[in-house]
Amino acid sequence: MRKFVILGLIAATAVPGIATAQSAAELRHDRREIREERRDLRHAQRQGDRRDVRDARHDVRDARQEYREDWRDYRRTHRDVYRGGNWRAPFRYSRWNVGAQLRPAYYNSRYYINDPYRYRLPRPGNNLRWVRHYNDVLLVNIRTGRVVQVHRDFFW
């Protein structure tokens, strides 16, 4: 009887890890598919006619939509990761848009998301950081303070 209980506990801890790995693999596959469709679109723009370009754009749009759906499914099944929590800032909430310039107080190291891979955010480039602003996530150029990308209501 004791062996069955131990096996049950091992299975209960291993199964969620396997499900997460599968979801991450699906997201990687979708990103690869988007890259391939973009490459096909560039090829069609260089050597194809209008119909080829239109079809390639449609394929890119479909691949992006599939990626978004898989990402939403991942967020829905991993609500504990995206939980808002008790997060307070010493400033008011502002709805930032791409291209806005932030003061350094809004994007200092206190608000950095140190592990963007945990949230399935893409890797930031040079001089870019993911910053949390209440429930939003901003990709900010830390040299200029410009907002490069915005994900609204990222946290629940």
From TrEMBL:
It holds the Pfam family RcnB. InterPro entries: RcnB. Residues 36-58 are annotated as: Disordered. The keyword Signal applies. Keywords: Signal. Residues 1-21 form the signal peptide. It comes from the Bacteria. This is Ni/Co efflux regulator RcnB.
